[in-house]
Design a protein that fits this description.
4% of the residues lie in helices and 51% in strands. Among the domains are: 248 residues, no CATH class; 197 residues, Immunoglobulin-like. It is globular and about 95 Å long. It has 882 residues and is mainly beta. The protein has a 24-stranded antiparallel β-barrel. Strands 1, 3, 6, 7, 8, 9, 12, 13 and 14 form a 9-stranded mixed sheet that branches. A 5-stranded mixed sheet has the order 2-4-5-11-10, with no helix packed on it. It has 4 helices and 46 strands.
Length: 882
Amino acid sequence: MKYIKFIILLLISNLIIAQEESISVETRSYTTKRLSEEPKIDGLLDDSCWQSIDWQSDFTVNRPNNGEIPSRQTKFKILYDDNHLYLAFLCLDDKPEQLINRLGRRDNWPGEWVAVNIDSYGDNNTAFAFGSSLSGVKGDSFVSNNGDDWDKNWNPVWYLKTAMNDEGWTAELKIPFSQLRFGKQEEQIWGFQVLRKDFREDERSTWQHIPNNASGWVSNFGDLKGIKGIKPKRQLEIQPYIVANLQSSPAEEGNPFEDGLSNGYNFGLDGKLGLTNDITLDLTINPDFGQVEADPSALNIDGFQIFFNEQRPFFIENNNLFNFQITGSEAGGNYDIDNLFYSRRIGARPRGNIDVVDNAFVNRPNFTSILASAKVSGKTRDGWSIGVMESVTQREEAEIDIAGKRSVQTIEPLSNFFVGRLSKDFNQGATTIGGTLTSVYRDLEGTGLEDQYHSDALSGGINFIHTWNEREWAIEGSLIFSNVKGTTEKINDTQTGFEHYFQRPDAEHIELQDLTSLSGNGGNLSIANYWGEDNLSFQSGVTWRSKGLELNDIGFLNTSDEINYYFWGAYRLPTANKTFRSFQIKYNTWSRWTTGNEHLYLAFNTNARATFQNYWSLASEVNFVQKDISQKALFGGPLLRRASGFYKFIDIDSDDRKDFTAGLNYGRFDAIGSDKGVVIVQMLNLRFRYQFNDAFSLQLSPRYFQQDRKIQNVSFEEIGEDARYITGRIKQKTFSTSIRMNYSITPNLTIEYWGQPFVSIGNYEEFKFMTDSTNPDFNQRFHLYNDNEISFRAEDDIYRIVENETGYAYSFDNPDFNFVEFRSNMVLRWEYKPNSELFLVWTQSNSNFSDPNQSVFATLRDDLFNEEAQNIWLVKLTYRFY
């Protein structure tokens, strides 16, 4: 552990010497007035009330030429009454006929836009953002972490209209105070910022100037003054829904559950109740997420879980209050995915096994139904943030038919998921300390699932961030724990699962035991300096996961038994010059150990990104992996030394203001030294977008991945007291294309389509078993089966082994694969009144396995669209009462 001691001493020394001049920002203020007559929200700004107050202007460029006078100025006025805030914007343009008037869906700001950010909490950390494109498309976000996180799934009720005139364009906003959070002071003083995007110049300007090398966004806002005598409003909104669906799929002869056609309907309720002006109760009863876009196809042969982003609105809104990212390093790493709360666990696919005879037909639900979910969340005026969520998922059963005789078998127990978070801001938001607790309880009694699920899972942690010198310096830390309970068999499965591998034969610090509970811990400690007058920035830290840490009942854990050190440093150009609109270069270092002090990994990286004055951008990267030893590659076997080498990457993008834009990135990894030729990995991504007119756009994103890896896990065979960790050389090719079309009829009526063909083919050869898996000499790590030892039996699709030296005889399945899948959905969304919507949805999906000897494009041609496709048509209507 000498490395960890050194790292801690390094962090402390950096903290002691951190004495640098801070960036001072002159704070502007704007004083509003109360109005007596409400203006008509039509974007014209011809109501008499707007004449009672002067325009405010004098914007400065935020980027690229930070601090300079913008190409085109912006003006605004603000009025209020007892219940609403009214804002008028005049976006000046000397050539209004050239304005880009693109349409899009809510929260997609195409072309010109203007926005306001309001820190009504006054905490210098969070804000409510409202904005509009020239075409009248709404955008709203809840801003947290001093501008680092923007939650676009926050959809408040407010009103907007825009118009064009000879001076440019105007926007008129009406924001109910019920959608903001503020205290009971006689006079409100709120943090305030106005910003505008000049699309033609690709220039963003702000009312409150924030220097490019200042740290933080919300903490540098100006002040909005003059709002007097208003009272906090409690929010009350009810949104029932009704949905009908029709599903078609190929009929399967003899299968009573697959007759080719089914239909149904459902209904439920979403609600929002302001318990106080600061704290809101959100609830959903029998929620439906049929309009949510499907997850992209993915295939991972390395064993690690695939992380999918949450797309369901109920779980995304206010997610920042529940988020507990254990590390979150600037350098980045697999450990950054780890989180105490991963909402995709709620309502996931049932995992219970079904034991049936060969002639049985099974009707198995694809997802676990959420009976109800509720969350209480918000932030008080004095800096307390609270988030409490509880969800109940129903007991799921699979229906089994054997020669017409029906039975049911439980595959998912009735479960309760809980997550609670409490944090407190100090020093005007410069310091935050918080804690999180999560739990899962499953009613396993009588289900037959006692050996397949943890009965209880408890996890929690505390974290803090302290900043100083105008938030340029930051020290951040977290400490977490976990405890899971279950039968001896279930806890044994957990210990031997991919995240843990307690059975690893060469791990002296790990012991597989018969237990009914398993506990662990983890954490992170880092120190950082963000920009400043020298435009340099760095972060250095250490993050760890103990061998017994288990979060995957309600959180996300990539792997346990690891200690990672990371360093990130960066320099950025303070402002544009004759060549660059922006430029930044970075350096990263990573090093990894097990908790038994086995050094696994050491890598160095440098990368740069630049945007040129012609609006094209270029990024490049070189990554040198000096040492790579995997504790997972042999799936429970000993450590495996993998190839050292270089990864090179380049990314090019054209001017994204144009109707046609294109981009590509290409990356390649090559092993070096004695491992040369052991691994070759290549990937190519292309991006094309064409804006046919202001309403219609098309995007294509083809992706191609290819690897030739001489050691890839295939099978494990136990023969007496000996073990065979069998690997092979894999040649894998993967191709996919994301197709996205958007047609906006009006700002509130859109049609969106997304589709993705996907195929991945893997062919194995040169089979071998590992003998000395960490030997520096590649050829000494394994025994390669010769032609006399291995044979293929095509009728059984297996490889048969008879070892010459030992006489051991065993077999393993042919690992070749060809997985092909197509997913798509088309959604018509009509917001027929504010926050009330009609959805028409068509979803199509098809997945199967094809001949591994086919090429990628032959597979796409012959097997992508076949008779196995499933189609779902859905109509969903919501109505929001407020």
